[in-house]
Amino acid sequence: MTTVEEVPAGANDARGRVAELHAIREQARRGPSERATEAQRAKGKLTARERIELLLDEGSFNEVEPLRRHRAVGFGLEAKKPYTDGVITGWGTVHGRTVFVYAHDFRIFGGALGEAHATKIHKIMDMALQAGAPLVSLNDGAGARIQEGVSALAGYGGIFQRNTRASGVIPQISVMLGPCAGGAAYSPALTDFVFMVRETSQMFITGPDVVRAVTGEEITQNGLGGADVHAETSGVAHFAYDDETTCLEEVRYLLSLLPANNRENPPTVACEDPADRSGDALLDLVPADGNRPYDMRKVIEEIVDDGEHLEVHERWATNIICALARLDGRVVGIVANQPQSLAGVLDIEASEKAARFVQMCDAFNIPIITLLDVPGFLPGVDQEHGGIIRHGAKLLYAYCNATVPRISVVLRKAYGGAYIVMDSQSIGADLTYAWPTNEIAVMGAEGAANVIFRKQIADADDPEAMRVRMVKEYKSELMHPYYAAERGLVDDVIDPAETRQTLIRSLDMLRTKHADLPARKHGNPPQ
């Protein structure tokens, strides 16, 4: 560590002082010993500064408080006071737009958070909020610095408070690049998006040793809180990748789709994909038979610019798709049922996933496109006892509360309460369209006929023939493709090939939409 006493002779003149400055800054930049750097790379991990270089545009990083050192004493801390105190903070640009960042340096105290470390993070969070720019955290730390006791824990409290204050104001992205245990896991959970890297990043409140001691269960760190666990099972992670480079490239891509803050619109880009391009392939992608599955992703690819979209929570609650894409160069959020998974029904996890996504889109001025092919809510004792009513209401609340432009398209089935919840006209969708293959009804024709005509079917000489006849009658009366349009429940029935151009024209009209919510401190959404 460079100190004033080690500065070369002549340091009292200006050139000497500048030499001293450069020596100290170089020490701060290099970090601890080469041995510590080698140990970091042996785990397949980059250093904190290498990560920042990958995230930000080349040469754009401006560091804040690189010379900060802790003031703690005891347990040997007074003899070890490295520059940065284990966290690198500052700002730079991503695609030319300002982004604030902090990155734990695992080589220093294992990235553990102490009082000075926390103060640096608090400062950069405050700067991001005041500047109205996104905040990205590159997490690779061992939790609170035990040697500093409760002062370290209080530092986490300040981070959580700032996460909450910034929620819905600036985009907050957490990138997990190492361990994240205990209270440290709550900050990422409060942010808008969580990225993880397989094998090297883990998140858990209590680690495997505590689990073993308390419950007797044997489990590895990755089995307890690895990237795949959180991307597929818990839903904590929105994205999971195999390596840090790919992960950080995708963070940059996500930032290109988000506004700097809630007062701005997402960035618009020039689009070479014609706005009036016909989507003739849609006629073959979606079977008219409502019982046949298909991949809704292919429908989305056919509609959006150049087929490009970024799916959020791709591997969790796969019966619903949430994605960011562009239409004629403008960012949109897409919520769509996925018939390939559980026939596209809504269940507890799908409702939670879509509700959070709708809230995020509304917070950051991203119009919402909803593509419906939903047979209803998933029936079952587990769903009812797990609170499907409460969780389904989260999605309903999110849509009803959203003031951004909202457009829904019914592709095939739209049954019962699930139809209402999926941004129907009755809960405030600005425009609703349907394909000629739509079936908007309280329930499927078979179920409806069995309820309505139960007695006639039971008393008939040939119950099965009577049931078939009643199903056909119900379909012709209440489930033909134009029933909803005739009653003004959809604004138009459109040719599927015209879906892209219809959505683009509708969004153009809705660009100037302005809607105010009632004056209140905040709502009380179902939990």
Question: How would you summarize the topology of this molecule?
Answer:
Layout: H1 14-30, H2 34-42, H3 48-55, E1 62-64, E2 87-94, E3 97-104, H4 115-131, E4 135-139, H5 150-166, E5 172-176, E6 179-181, H6 186-190, E7 193-197, E8 202-204, H7 208-215, H8 221-225, H9 227-234, E9 239-241, H10 244-256, H11 282-285, H12 296-303, E10 309-312, E11 320-327, E12 330-337, H13 348-363, E13 368-374, H14 381-385, H15 388-401, E14 406-415, H16 416-421, E15 431-434, E16 439-441, H17 445-452, H18 454-459, H19 463-478, H20 483-486, E17 492-493, H21 499-510
Parallel strand pairs: 3-4, 4-5, 5-7, 6-8, 7-9, 12-13, 13-14, 14-15, 14-16, 15-17
Antiparallel strand pairs: 1-2, 2-3, 10-11, 11-12
Primary descriptors:
2-enoyl-CoA Hydratase, Chain A, domain 1; 39% helix; 17% strand; disordered N terminus; 527 residues; alpha/beta; 7-stranded mixed sheet
How would you describe what is shown here?
This protein is an alpha/beta fold and 527 residues long. It has 3 domains: 44-256, 2-enoyl-CoA Hydratase, Chain A, domain 1 (Alpha-Beta Complex); 282-443 and 480-510, 2-enoyl-CoA Hydratase, Chain A, domain 1; 445-478, no CATH class. It has helices at 14-30, 34-42, 48-55, 115-131, 150-166, 186-190, 208-215, 221-225, 227-234, 244-256, 282-285, 296-303, 348-363, 381-385, 388-401, 416-421, 445-452, 454-459, 463-478, 483-486, 499-510, and strands spanning 62-64, 87-94, 97-104, 135-139, 172-176, 179-181, 193-197, 202-204, 239-241, 309-312, 320-327, 330-337, 368-374, 406-415, 431-434, 439-441, 492-493. Strands 10, 11, 12, 13, 14, 15, 16 and 17 form an 8-stranded mixed beta sheet that branches. Strands 1-2-3-4-5-7-9 form a 7-stranded mixed beta sheet, with helices on both faces. A two-stranded parallel sheet has the order 6-8. Helix 16 (416-421) links the parallel strand 14 (406-415) and strand 15. Helix 4 runs parallel beside helix 5, helix 13 (348-363) packs parallel to helix 15 and helix 17 crosses helix 19. The chain is elongated and about 105 Å long. The two termini are 51 Å apart. The model is unreliable at 1-5 (pLDDT under 50).
